[in-house]
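Progress report, Aim 2. The chain analyzed during this reporting quarter is listed below.
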Amino acid sequence: MFVAGPLVHTPSKLSAGTLTVAALGVSQAEVDGASPWLARAFTVMRSAFHGDPTEGYRIMVFSHDRHGFHSGTSRAGGFLFFLPKGQPFEDQENHAIIAHEMVHSMVRPYGTGPDGTDDWYNEGIADYAAITVPNAAGLYSPRAYLGLVNQEAAFYYLNPARVT
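Predicted structure tokens for the chain:
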């Protein structure tokens, strides 16, 4: 699949040691509007996981109509975020997914087995830290935090596949 169109980004002057947010299918205004929360979340996550403050970080957002749900994929130094077409980038619902992908990109150095045997750790720490670290830094309202905790608990305890 190819996504084409104008690439927008912040900051306007790119450098190797900064947080860069770039997007296809999202307006410059949306990227600018989402960037303050992203910058605060990144600073908190980098501190929590002892990241190098001199290294840059990249967030790439794709928005298109061929992907109907929010998701992401990460690597050391950044992640890709898939945003359904027509949904606002600066939406509270995206924060937990974005924080989840940030955690993935930052815990990779702690070890993932080549055969995926450590996947339980990577997903578990990402789910946990994506909620607790930003909350401790005041990035979630009490209502949003309670909603995230309840959503995670329901996903696990109410999931019929849990016992398989």
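The mean pLDDT is 84. The beta strands are 7-10, 19-24, 57-64, 71-75, 78-84. These observations will guide the mutagenesis work planned for the next reporting period.
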